[in-house]
Amino acid sequence: MCLTARRITLRRVLKGATAALAVLALAAVSPGVAHAGSAAEPPPTGPPPAPASAAPSERSDSSGGKGLPDGWRLTGKGDGKELVWASPDPVPMGDARVEFYSGDRLLGRPVAARDGRSFRLPLRGARIGPARQLKVLAAGRRLDGAASGAESRGPRPGPAARPEASLPANPVDPGVPGRYRTVTGSYTLKSVRLPGFPEPVEMKAEVVGPAGAPGKRPLALFLHGRHYTCYGPDGEEAMNWPCASGLKPVPSHQGYQRAQKLLASQGYVTVSIAANGINGQDHLAEDGGAQARSSLVRLHLARWADWAGKRSAAPEAVRAVAPADLSRVLLVGHSRGGEGVDRAALDSLYRPPAAQDGQRGPVRWKIRGNVLIGPTLFSQNPAPDVPSATILPGCDGDVSDLQGELYVDGTRGVSRGTALHSAVYMVGANHNFFNSEWTPGQSKAPSVDDFPSDTPDPVCSKGTRDRLSAPRQQTAGATYIAAAARLFVAGDDRVRPLLDGSGRRAPSADPARVLTHAVGAHRTQALMPGAATKVEGGRICAQVAPDDAKACLPPATSGASPHFASWEFAPEPGRDALAMRWTRAGAPVRVSPARPVSLAGAKDLALRVIVPPNTTGTRFDVSLVDASGHRAELGRVGVDGLPGSDRTASYWGREVRVPLSSTVREKLDLKQVKTVELTPRTRSGKAWLMDAWGWRPGTPTVKAAELPRVDVGRLKVKEGDSGVRTYRVPVTVSGKGSGKVRLFVPDVETGAVAHRTLTVRPGDRVDVPVEIRGDTRYNYDMEHDALVKAVRGAVVGSYSGGVMALNDDPAPKVTLEPVADRVTEGQALTWRMTLSEPVDVDMMATLSFQPVDGGGPELTTLDVDPEWLRNELGTEPRPERALSKLGQEMGLFVSVPAGERTAEVSIPTLKDEVSEPEESLKAQLFVYDTEWQPQPGPVAMGTVRDAS
Questions:
Q1: N or C end of the chain: smaller count of CB under 10 Å?
Q2: How many CB atoms lie within 10 A of CB 888?
């Protein structure tokens, strides 16, 4: 990109950005140089990014050296240093979080400008590593333009394979409408206040239920995900709350009516709740809004419980449908709404700390199961004892790493394992189309297909063989939501084969290709690869690791695996699989757990095996060996890869089963199985084994275990002026019993992560000390983090917290002094911004053009250097207008670099041959405070004399 284009692109980064978030898009500036950007009179936005005018030699890496990639800037000094990335195009609003990485090390999650182009991350003393390794990811998808050959040097998925034969139809099809007439209505209640959010959140819902259905009916509650909150008549989109004048809330909660009507016809009362008030404020929540969404869900359930006891007090829309049975509740959540309903299920069993919770009354409902659609799982701590079905959209362009797979994998070994956790991989489905209000051609507000269309994709581009249309995707989604309702709530085991990896299809979902696997229910663990597993002929690999030799998939692999979705740190202990690679048939891979296991009650041995996308014909012979050395062959399995490309997460485990026949039982002691053998019968290939289980049919009754719950809080303290003080991260342990969790504590300076496994009991003190050093220099707040993951016999609510040291030093006084404020045409007007003392962060300000007092000729766009005007303000000289008339988007950005006291801002004027009177300019400096709000500063006056 040429210099001029880069300047204009960066000028546009914050165009139209508003309030405090806008300032977070900052860029480095060379000492003493002024830059153009978005300003107002007074500025409604934070300071804009500086134009990308610095040559590569002016850009620094983490050590103060050279060579940051285009679009990246490093600002500040010491603990106030910040890393900034500016995208040439807006990053669409979605549910995945934007993250900065150095190689495979998570640097942190930047905060975005409201226009979605610029992102700023305070480094707080941490080093970023080699500049060439910087990258921006959202759910594993690369966003920055620095992606290079290094990103694709790993294996690529092969060409698309021929479609597999259709699975056999399940005898019971949950997608067939029921016999009840449906009624639709809505209610709006008084808004509520949730912890940590300054603005009230709406209590609004769309109700669809059966009319005339006998008795009390089960209740299904839907929660949408993170989407634009507001829209206008001319296609405006906004992400704030409440909506500004002239804008309306996006009716995201009305987007699930196809599924609601299907369930209602089958006898379910359904309610879809609005959450724009959370979406517009969840940037304030450390967990991305999961706890707030849980509170909102449970507040609605509490109202339904009230209405069940006093139906006459219910809104008309509720009275128009059959009464709801709060002992039979299904929660359905889409995207961040998925994480929200999972947290609601957890909070209904194990109460969260009162200070974090917005719903504090008694639990008067029972959640029988969750359906999670393209969900996030930032915490990677799913509710283990609530059955779940997670829909994984194969063409998800938002939560593209399909991290929702961790709702299955992340429950293994945590609790009793009786709850069924199913992954439903829907080939060709994208993220948005499950919600009709996020679907072009169906929505009232602007909407898009979330899968990127910049380059053709063999699987996910519109019109390809595998890609689903919006109506087909919505029908398939409704069908599998109904399947989960029928299994989890109604207890109809006949639909279980649609969800548990048994290889059946629901004809109502045709032609969608839907595949499933599961853990839990009547499974008993045979093998879960880990550090104690013994392997011959293969290797134990790390699901998340930066080292190619240790990783299951090299980090540079094109395409991804939902099973290997990253968390906060890499490498991450405790997440392993078995990697197999062979160049000839017949060489067995032998895998032995730390101690023999019992498969005595199982009907089959079920394995979840990953093979590369688009591959066909991978075959294994499966055998078992008992503790006495007796060996028995179980049979042969075949595994085909999913349709995939370098932009899909298609390295996904297919569930295959082999019977534990009477012959096998005669040869082996199934109570003492020591080894699983997999013998490839194809000439060459590779595969990964996630786990193996003894399987038998049926769905057991689930009773939640009494477990301890761990929550991490955030303590805020003043840094002080001197000395070192020790504080402790607030960690609470509630509930019952004892269990194990893994504690992670990153070093704020080096980024190194210490971790240890702890046994926790209610009331225990989990000691995480943090030292805070005082100083007298103005700086940013400093975060010291601690994070927790459940290991066994415990659950985790608030997984991330720590200690935040608040800057308590006053900002320096700022003056603006003339250097050349009375000049002749062809010379530059110049002022110097001066601080009373140096500080550890860049001091940002905007020089905003103002109308000249008393009228008189003003400096216009034809009086300044046209190239400067284009590069610095992004506008053309004609039509001629006074600089004060350029509008709120125009102004000059000036920054005093950290550690320095001055910077100059200049306006080069143009010498012409026209005789004219003196022209004046008035501008006011607005300096941004610690809350990133513009504070009015000194006023500058300038005069330009005629040169003729």
A1: C
A2: 16
